[in-house]
Amino acid sequence: MSALSKAKGFKQSKSGTYLSMATTAFGAIGVAKQIKKARAESDTLRLIDAIVTAAGVVTGLAILYRELKRLGDDDVLLG
């Protein structure tokens, strides 16, 4: 198996899924800052936007977790 084909399969591997989960969770930091700023400024529209964004982050993490469970032992990079 060539290095290029392994790199293409990275997204469907456990490692790739963990990396995707980490970057999605990192987005939660920005959402938390956005919520804090909206509450400090009493800006309802920004608060609603932050809550909707947070729901997207949670949904993304749930989808990635489901994909991680689905992968099971069929890890592409382990051969």
Provide a descriptive summary of the structure in words.
The structure is a single chain. With 79 residues, the protein is mostly helical. It contains three helices and no strands. The longest helix has 28 residues. The protein is elongated, with a radius of gyration of 17 Å. The mean pLDDT is 83. Keywords: Membrane, Transmembrane, Transmembrane helix.
> What is the CA-atom radius of gyration, in angstroms?
17 Å
Structure classification:
mainly alpha
| DSSP strand tally | 0
In helices, the fraction of residues equals over 70%
Brief synopsis:
This protein has 79 residues and is mostly helical. It has 3 helices and no strands. α2 runs antiparallel to α3.
Blueprint (SSEs and pairs):
Blueprint: H1 3-8, H2 14-40, H3 44-71
Helix pairs in contact: 2-3
Features:
single chain; 79 residues; mainly alpha
